[in-house]
């Protein structure tokens, strides 16, 4: 069974599928507010790698990447 991700999680997956990036760029690319990005990254735990703190005031400093072994899974999720 495929997990159900919301719009915010899908935006994050689309962005990090193209390229790993820091939280500031991810905020800009997705148009999310800091707390919405934190919430989305928490829901994507195990799908994306996050180095840094997942708190509203520090999420911009985090680095978010898609592990190579999760690419095909993310491709399936995005294709839905």
Would you mind describing this structure in some detail?
With 80 residues, this protein is mainly alpha-helical. The chain has a single domain (7-79), classed as Arc Repressor Mutant, subunit A, CATH 1.10.10. It has helices spanning 7-18, 23-30, 34-43, 71-79, and strands at residues 21-22, 49-51, 63-65. It has a 3-stranded antiparallel beta sheet.
Short description:
This protein is mainly alpha-helical and 80 residues long. It has helices at residues 7-18, 23-30, 34-43, 71-79, and strands spanning 21-22, 49-51, 63-65.
**What characterizes the major β-sheet?**
3 strands, antiparallel
**Number of separate structural domains:** 1
Low-confidence spans: pLDDT under 50, at least 5 residues? none
Would you state the CATH class? Mainly Alpha
Q: Structural class of the helix and strand makeup? A: mainly alpha
- CATH architecture field: Orthogonal Bundle
Strand order of the largest sheet: 1-3-2
The span between the termini is: 13 Å
CATH-assigned homologous superfamily: Winged helix-like DNA-binding domain superfamily/Winged helix DNA-binding domain
If you consult CATH, what is the topology? Arc Repressor Mutant, subunit A
Shape: globular
